Protein 1
Amino acid sequence: MSNEPTTSPTDAQARPNVARMYDYYLGGCHNFAADREAAERVLQIFPDTGVAAQTNRAFLRRAVRYAAEQGVRQFLDVGAGLPTQGTVHEVVRAVAPESRVVYVDSDEVAVAYARRLLPGDDRTAAIRGDLRRPGEILADPEVGRLIDLREPVAVLLVAVLHFVPDADDPYAAVARLRDATVPGSMLVLSHLTLDGVPPVAAAQGQAVYQRSSAPLTPRTYAETERFLAGYELVPPGLVQLAQWRPDGEPQAGVSHGYGGVGVRR
Ligand SMILES: C[S@@+](CC[C@H](N)C(=O)[O-])C[C@H]1O[C@@H](n2cnc3c(N)ncnc32)[C@H](O)[C@@H]1O
């Protein structure tokens, strides 16, 4: 299978893309002019967005390390984005080298980069898939090859659910993934919120994303917590991202969202 994107570069580059905007916030180099311009507009409204993106990545690293330390050896990372420093397979393999990771993203450019940058081994794969169609993700041959659904799986939905509007029923999609996994499986969740953000700034930020590849649906604490139905929350529960089990790793303390880990009952 080719690792190259199949849309023309012009199509792929013309519209700000949320995966590459996020890459720009993180200081990455896999982004185009339209992505940088949109990201700079967001940074004018929320200057700490880059720090918040680092905070989210640090949460992801802590959460997957926790899952690996609890004995989980399979990771399904939906909305994985571009492989960046401290990727999931690097973190979990430091705990358990046999861990298997499937990266899933709806953006074909992100998947193409992932295939190019990931190790060419038999324990990682990057596939194209849409969280709004969880059945297709679960039926993907690469998922079937690397993820044994009879064993616990950590499903990672980190900074992705806010790209799925209520009209697409993200709660049903999360429940579908939950129901496909056995007790002891985990959900690692982070979600953007605009709780406490002045309405004018919130509207300006959302307007930038409205013209991107995936408009934003920030959610409240209660709306975010609903995604964890059927899971028992690991202490300290669903909290500001920087407050979830800080481990002394140098990390930024700016949270634009909530994060938590649940264990399937
Ligand atoms: C902000 S990035 C988060 C990347 C990574 N999970 C992290 O937290 O560092 C969001 C990613 O979700 C992807 N995405 C958006 N909507 C999606 C959907 N419906 N299904 C799968 N991926 C999606 C985007 O392409 C992007 O790569």
Protein 2
Amino acid sequence: MILGIETSCDETAAAVVTWDGEIRSNVVASQAELHARFGGVVPEIASRRHLELVSPVVREALEQAGVALGEVERVAVTQGPGLVGALLVGLAAAKGVAWGWALPLVPVDHLHGHVASLFLQPDPVEPPFLCLLASGGHTLLLDVRGHAAFRVLGATLDDAAGEAFDKGARLLGLGYPGGAAIDRLAREGDAEAFEFPVAAVPGLDFSFSGVKTALLYAVRDLDAAELEARRADLAASYQRAIVRALVERTRAAARRTGAERIAIVGGVAANSALRAALPEAKAAPLALCTDNAAMIASAARYVEPASDPLRLDAYAVA
Ligand SMILES: Nc1ncnc2c1ncn2[C@@H]1O[C@H](COP(=O)(O)OP(=O)(O)OP(=O)(O)O)[C@@H](O)[C@H]1O
Ligand SMILES: [Mg+2]
């Protein structure tokens, strides 16, 4: 039994996962509503809320799994990348549990965690495969060679895909977080109504700052009534441009590496247009796309425990 704890951004999460990847519980307390009125995550507010939530969320995960702390064999915690203040709350909680129960503590990289969402039951994906990781803070193409071994083939040069969704949603007045809202609204719109650009970046990298600016100009050109009437078309066209960029680069990477399998993970992998546009890809289950602790516990199966756990520190950048 592995107890996972994740507090890198605005979800306080804990989960219990078995060694063969069965999810016994997966509790996620989202703070999204708390941050919505600021239009994004406020780090200090996130840290304070994690502090209030982390103990009850861990307790809830153990209770739902029907597992006592005495039965847990290792504690896994996100060490980074993320908001340092937020990470430190999870790290301190994990140190406390590990120290108190004399358990090994495994530091997990959050991005490794997203990839490890694919290694869970009931339908685990076995490496090697090509992985598109598209989340709120990252957009990466990874050559995944083993359960804890991957090479970066490409990355975004500016905004992450999820960030582009969130900023686009803000321009369209859809609130925060915006990816899911654009996804929903786009179903009612015409994806070819507006021509938004796909950045011509060399190699396997991405760029999403141009498409965001193009949306800004399109919105600026419309008066309030026109914007209201065309909001769904804008959402659908904007989403189409982001999805095209992701799909084209992912397929190019697959050709270049000769990968036989493609997988997609991270919050943006929940996007219905992306999932439809890459039918050959294995997508992480919806509940495991956005931040959760089951993926952190999953990754911890393939990482050595820290030799000096109380000295572990958080890191902000990958
Ligand atoms: N259906 C969807 N369509 C598009 N984007 C979505 C959808 N659902 C969630 N997202 C986006 O996913 C992002 C959140 O994903 P995730 O929780 O993996 O990111 P994060 O943890 O904030 O960033 P990182 O993992 O890079 O640290 C947000 O940007 C959100 O808008
Ligand atoms: Mg994440």
Protein 3
Amino acid sequence: MSSKDEDVVDLKRRCFLLKATTAVGGVGIAAASVPFISYWMPSAEAEAEARPIKVDISQLQPTQQLTVVWRGKPIWVIRRTQDMLDTLGKVTDELRDPLSEDDQQPPYAKNEYRSIKPEFFIAVGICTHLGCIPNYRPDKGGISPDWLGGFYCPCHGSKYDLAGRVYKNVPAPKNLIIPPYMYLSDNEIEIGTDKEGTELE
Ligand code: FES
């Protein structure tokens, strides 16, 4: 073989190696991309979990608590009696944020009842200290002789009143979170959305 022929073979060989390397590189990128893209794309399950949920409240009896799950969080719906609502004005001096100044609720729940309708209380059932789930304790005298009802977190002893407002001198720093919600009718609410488009962090 002449040196010219050798040069042609060598050039062909280099071209093949270059193409093969590029192809392997391309496969490598494609293979690496699949897990990344599937990780990045929200799963159908996550999307379903983030969607607002409708809750039928027609069967909820006075003092009863209903728990539903939205975005993986427990959401309470509690039907408060007039007697329960009357306790709210009696504990304000003992509360850390009685007027709900902290941004823990949508604007329509920034009131004494922390709700749209006083009768129905909707809240995220997660303690604002370290995330335990407090117990619903509407029983007067149940936690202490002066207890008028509310929520008690057994993890470190935080207490909230029946509007989810945190007491002073407990580890939890803030009132319970009120999620965005709205009434679809007198018997049905939708949790996770509202007319203002409020987002829960
Ligand atoms: S998590 Fe509720 S008091 Fe600590």
Protein 4
Amino acid sequence: MSVSDAFDEWARSGKDQGMEERHWHTAKHALARLPAEPGDTILDLGCGSGYAGRALRETKDVGRVYGIDAAPEMAHNAASYTEDDAVAFAIGDFECLPFDDDSIDHCWSMEAFYYAEDPRAVLDELQRVLRPGGTFYCAVNRWEENVHSHEWEELVGVPMLLWSEARYREAFSEAGFAVASQDRIPDTETTIPAESDFPTEDWETRTAMIERYREYGTLLTVGTNTA
Ligand SMILES: C[S@@+](CC[C@H](N)C(=O)[O-])C[C@H]1O[C@@H](n2cnc3c(N)ncnc32)[C@H](O)[C@@H]1O
């Protein structure tokens, strides 16, 4: 199945909103760090329901947000969740961004980068569209050290990268980004049932669930365009 077919189906069945709710647990902490100034232009790569752009308009008064998503139904849903004219959504691919050189102040992406077929091409595109000093905030819940995420490729049914923390840093550097920071943001909100409730449908042990959410959470790698 293609990534756009998979996520079109998620959008049609309303799973985009559940995904937003789950991702918001850690995304809100990462977004709070984004050094956006009032009036800035923000790109959301693989925007899903578009919650990040809506939040940045409210909390940081950014001037414009563009959400790009490969799944037409996702972009359509995202557009239907806001009446804000400063937020726009388009169907597109990370590897070919419809923006001029140096036209974006900051780029945000949550749980999307690992779907890239050619991650270097995506990073090169970001280098092109980000202004000097602009940042790429790349948040993922699936990566090598988070062993609990390894089975997701099979569950979702589309190919996914499984990079280590070091590989993210290396790839950013190779593409010309200065790695400003990399850390794990714990998810302190997902409810973890009592010991007596395990095993659950999704978790064999309480220890594994605690590790997944409280210890690993979300990996945030921040690159700065030093061009
Ligand atoms: C797991 S969802 C995450 C959505 C949203 N960022 C969030 O945090 O809830 C991944 C999204 O990335 C999109 N996507 C995957 N590969 C893409 C690509 N190459 N270009 C554009 N969008 C892509 C999918 O269609 C999907 O909506």
